[in-house]
Amino acid sequence: MATIIGIDKIGFYSPEYYLDLTDLATARQVDPAKYKIGIGQDQMAVLPADQDIVTMAANAAAQILDQADRQQIDLLIFATESGIDQSKAAALYLQELLQINHQARAFEIKEACYGATAGLQIAYDHLAAHPTSQKVLVVGADVARYGIATAGEVTQGAGAVALLITRQPRLLGLQQPTAYYSEEIMDFWRPNYRDTALADGKFSTAQYLRFLDLTWQAYRAKTGTQLTDLTAVLFHIPFTKLGLKGLRQLTTDLAAATKESYFDYFQQATGYNRQVGNLYTGSLYLSLLSLLDQQQLAAGSKIGLYSYGSGAVAEFFTAVVQPNYQQTLQVACHQQQLHQRQRLTVAEYEQFFMQTGLTDDHDFQIKRQSPHADFYFAGQTDQRRI
Ligand code: HMG
């Protein structure tokens, strides 16, 4: 049997609080249709003070890891652009919380929303290069913060996705080669002195679409793949409207009847994203989970994935759906997580927002606010996390 390397399990966690974007539109005196249709988002996850990238990542990964996984993981990659420490990798806190094997490499990587894809490709190369290695854990966890009453406010969100990468995976086999492109641009950035991102919004959307064209053309040239070889195409989703524009761009030359199924799959693939908002580096993989949870895809179907991280780096790659993949998904758990969330008023959301910004306090306690979470942040003593 040929060796396939890919995604064996996916875990997902998003905060237990959300804001309905109709409420936000009313408060900001904007037509709700702008947010729901123009931006393409319905709700956004709101981070409480007892969650951060480490606890969200632990909550996501705990869903999928059994005892054998914890023993067999020998590489743990934590992708984030919402780091909690300039020196120590969040991967080490995660390793401890999840009791993952100490004979593992554990580190943190950053390149905006592209980080988890970098992690995924490193995981692939690691397993391909080391026959005795068995499993790699890649997590992407972030908090998208632009600020109250900013243009980006409606595109905020938070959450974590955990991907277990193995040989003979049960969900998706990753294909090589892939196509990537990077170029230094100022479309979105967050200097160390800020806890909210800076974005040249319209410019950033144009770059996302430009990089899509560059990587898709490069992918086609490298592999000879046509769009019609792909059953569906998934996108990094900062907000669903931008993914939709990407899909329109890719499908311009297709006949209307052929186009339709790509747009149907796109709707399925953005269901969770519409409710959670941007979780930065996890967004593409939340879209993947959305599609897998809601569609019965035939084994062997090829899926295209477009990853984009501001700054900017993009990659286009494909993955093949594995037989009986549905048996591995925890659909009810994902849906229950979203259904049991508590709706906040705009005033409550603003209060949560202020509480989760940077603080000068070195020692503090945090009241538990996430009753369904396995892991939560309880504060700091002697500048050490609890
Ligand atoms: P804006 O000022 O709200 O833009 O900023 P707008 O006034 O052009 O409105 C947006 C859309 O709503 C337009 O549609 C309007 O026509 C429509 P479009 O022309 O785009 O098709 N609209 C309406 N539709 C229906 N009914 C109405 C109505 N009114 C208007 N009544 C912007 C939007 C995205 C720029 C802003 O939210 C922003 O700056 N967001 C943050 C940056 C961002 O998300 N960029 C995405 C690309 S970069 C990326 O993906 C990377 C990222 O994830 C970070 C990372 O890599 O780490 C961000």
UniProtKB/TrEMBL annotation:
Boundaries of every Hydroxymethylglutaryl-coenzyme A synthase C-terminal domain copy: 249-355
SUPFAM superfamilies: Thiolase-like
Entry-linked Pfam families: HMG_CoA_synt_C, HMG_CoA_synt_N
Entry annotated with the keyword Cell division: no
Gene3D superfamilies hit by this protein: 3.40.47.10
CDD domains per the UniProt record, alphabetical: init_cond_enzymes (cd00827)
Its EC number(s): 2.3.3.10
An example molecular function term from Gene Ontology annotations: hydroxymethylglutaryl-CoA synthase activity
Ranges that cross the membrane: none
Domain Hydroxymethylglutaryl-coenzyme A synthase N-terminal residues, every copy: 5-166
Superkingdom of this protein's organism: Bacteria
PANTHER family with a match to the protein in the record: 3-HYDROXY-3-METHYLGLUTARYL COENZYME A SYNTHASE, HYDROXYMETHYLGLUTARYL-COA SYNTHASE
Family: Belongs to the thiolase-like superfamily. HMG-CoA synthase family.
Protein name: Hydroxymethylglutaryl-CoA synthase
Origin species: Lapidilactobacillus gannanensis
